[in-house]
Amino acid sequence: MATFCLRATSIFSSLALRAVRTPSAAPLAKLNAASSLRAAAAPLSFCMETRAFASEAPERLANLSLVARPAPDFTADAAMPGGEIAKLTLSELCGNGSGVVLLFYPLDFTFVCPSEILAFNAAVADFEKLGFKVVGVSVDSVFTHQAWMRVPLAEGGIGKLDFPLVSDLDKTISSRYHSLLNNSVALRTLVIIDGAKNVRHMTVNDLPLGRNVEEALRVCEMIREVEKNGGKQVCPANWRRGEKMMEASFHGVKDYLGGLREKIEKQI
């Protein structure tokens, strides 16, 4: 009798567990239907949230980087190296595989700006060897650009340049490149665009902080080297032209880091 009771208890316990673990078909159908509704509503909810994000806080969108995106095209007046005024179109400058280095700066006749412009001007030939054209952009008028170029260095001007200065008088270009500060002047934004008209590099400096021309050249060199090998090799930290690149694979990482370790140990 005791054995029978134990077996009966075991059977009933097993049945109870199965009943708990296996819901009936009707609740399952309701559960599946609810899940389907939630899945169908998810994209709609996401769209609504995205619209709210865009409409309620447009200033957030202005901080999105342009890197890996097509460069916003523009046509504008520019003071040319010869002193004349001409229309420049970005997409035309990027033709035949040529890249462009866009050098945004706050204003003509100011302080850090001439030091940057003259530093980039001294390196124009180096940029051109790499297939990149330098173009300056500020919110000044094209006539102010011309006037500044007529003033000798000893008197606070920039003299004759080897690259054009674009006039962004209506601030459209600076806005499209997320460079405009409080709807007044452009920050020190550096944008490097490849021959396919895509933004490959973008940095923004505050007004009192000048940029490094050598770093801009290094970025241009990296772009060209990666293009040569079709992206099979990449440029590690502090890479310089002529140095070993890294194969874009797990084996490549191990090989590069192994060599880096040996180099560090030798220095120690």
Automatic annotation (TrEMBL):
Residues 65-225 form the Thioredoxin domain. PROSITE patterns: THIOREDOXIN_2. Keywords: Oxidoreductase. CDD domains: PRX_Typ2cys (cd03015). This is Peroxiredoxin PRX3. GO terms for biological process: cell redox homeostasis; cellular response to stress; hydrogen peroxide catabolic process; response to oxidative stress. GO terms for cellular component: cytosol. InterPro entries: AhpC/TSA (IPR000866), Peroxiredoxin (IPR050217), Peroxiredoxin_C (IPR019479), Thioredoxin-like_sf (IPR036249), Thioredoxin_domain (IPR013766). One of its GO terms (molecular function) is thioredoxin peroxidase activity.
